[in-house]
Amino acid sequence: MKLGPGLSFSWKRALGVTKAKRRVSKKTGIPLSRGGRRMKFGKWLGMK
What we know:
By secondary structure, the protein is mostly helical. The protein has one domain. Helix content is 58%, strand content 10%. It has 3 helices and 2 strands; from the N terminus they run E-E-H-H-H. The longest helix is centred in the middle third of the chain and has 12 residues, at 17-28. It is elongated.
């Protein structure tokens, strides 16, 4: 939702979803985003 130039509202940030996902990712060491997981496992398997 746009509120004007430079201002926006995110229901995920308001409810703390983003912070919770960050905590889980930091503790496990595995990113929760699809792209992050692909990069991590690609490096782990020796691909670029």
